[in-house]
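This protein record is not my work; I was only asked to verify it. The record follows directly below this note.
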Amino acid sequence: MKTQKRLGILTSGGDCPGLNTVIRAVVSNATLTYDWQVLGIPYATKGLLETKAIPLSLHCLDLRGIDPLLSMGGTILGSINQGDTMTQIDDILAGYQALELDALIGIGGDGSLGILNELSKKGNWQFIGIPKTIDNDVALTERVVGFDTAVNTVVDALNRLTYTAASHDRVMIVEVMGRTAGHLALHSGIAGGADVILIPEIPYTIKDVCDHLRLLRNRWGRRFAIIVVAEGAKTAIDFSYASCGQPTCGIGQQIAEEIRSYSNQHIDIRVSVLGHIQRGGIPSALDRLIATAFGKAAVDLVANGQSGKMVAWQNNEVVAFPLETVLSQSPALVDPNNYLVQTARSLGIYIGNPTIQSLEESPYLSCC
């Protein structure tokens, strides 16, 4: 006979710093406050599909009293961000029942939380979501787990690249993640002293980028520049690879080639694609704080009988919103007129032109 409430926890989607900190907080609050049993589900819904679980205790990973989960990157439970979960619904629901779970806490981005929310409705699970993503594009929350550390990682790279760019009079293009949202590029670009920031929400032209580089050199004597570009950045006419065949390079390399072409090869350019470096590393103090607060709040919501909710950070405290409301407004994109965009422009950073919307208005377009 089961004598304790059994709480499941899983991590889903791409990893990011702070996931283990959430797990630590969930286990701590669930065991110390409510005397529940916590089961870690390995590899998200795959663990449910295969009916696998890992018992988690407050000191299960201690090394001479040191708890590594507070500062360990990645996730001890593993994660997946591929596969067709919805075609295996019945088996996943059966796995949940076989594990005798009373409730489930899922840590994920808007995509993962959407899938888990659908599963919870079909299986009548008690489910609470915790938002995590380096893209910071989950709606209705000012902070998500992993974003602050990713910004710090990009800024550290920009700090290093600035000195080598200055030493060799080069333009350094730094390509960052973000999918359709430019939050990571915008925050890190401002904090890292970028000269150009290109994000999906604001169209740009290569002519404007080159004009800005020329201005830096001719008016201010700057012989180097830092360009931060989000992976989903677009030209002023919603540039499509279909116009020039299959892509042979990422957006950073594409922009480098266009700048070389427009400037007649007179600019020395290097491209750095940070890639999964942005997902790794020790979580920052802020991410540890957010992760801990989210983990604690999620357990309390389960204890209060809540379900179908996501914890969120607003006005320096944790609140909760219906997942349906969150998902209907996600992904949350950068407002082209928000304060940070205005701040970037006040610093002399070129960040595109939101008024250019068509080919006729675009002063320049080149093909990769």
The two ends are 65 Å apart (CA to CA).
